[in-house]
Amino acid sequence: MIVWINGTHGVGKTTTAALVQQLLPDSRVLDAEKVGGVLMDISPGLPETDNFQHWDPWRPLVVDTARRVLDYVGGTLVMPMTVLVEPYWREISAGLAEHGIPVHHFVLHADGDTLRHRIDNDAVMGPSWFRHAYVEPYLEAARTWLHDEAAVIDVTHATPEAAARQIADSVLAPAG
């Protein structure tokens, strides 16, 4: 199975994913951003873009990479990755479903002011124009489709540990 942790840049996906991995038996983290990094290293040849998700190969490569890793090692993949474009999410989730891979989709959510404050005060990365550029697209996706597609975890006042525990408890809860 896949535990997909969505949300905008700077909300805590990577930190939370590492903690979720510690709580779920036989799990490992697969960062789909690294698939984008592979594509970014192809030069010249790919069209100019501000986001590797716009390249058509990225989405099926994410699906195929996840499928092949699961076929090889089994277990659970915890995938922290922002996907804010609805057709892109539909393509990825449909591709995973075609391979019979169940996906537990979570969105880490904080309001716009909280996100901007965290981005401006990030002790590791410092202020980031890139992260700021995705606050409004995230809020729009949250209003229009994203929160309907996932379990929303409000991290405005929650620690990454609390968010990870909530995700793990949800995944491990008996179905029914």
Describe this structure in words.
The protein is of the alpha/beta class. The chain has one domain: Rossmann fold. 48% of the residues lie in helices and 14% in strands. It has eight helices and five strands, in the order E-H-E-H-H-E-H-E-H-H-H-E-H. The chain has helices at 13-23, 33-40, 58-73, 86-98, 112-120, 129-133, 135-144, 160-172; strands at 2-6, 27-29, 76-80, 103-109, 151-154. Strands 2-3-1-4-5 form a five-stranded parallel beta sheet, sandwiched between helices. The longest helix is centred in the middle third of the chain and has 16 residues, at 58-73. The radius of gyration is 16 Å and the shape is globular.
In N-to-C order, the SSE pattern is: EHEHHEHEHHHEH
Q: Quaternary state, please? A: single chain
**Termini separation:** 18 Å
Major β-sheet profile: 5 strands, parallel
- What name is given to the CATH topology? Rossmann fold
Would you count the extended β strands for me?
A: 5
Level-1 CATH class name:
Alpha Beta
Strand content: 5-15%
Q: Which strands sit side by side, in order, in the main sheet? A: 2-3-1-4-5
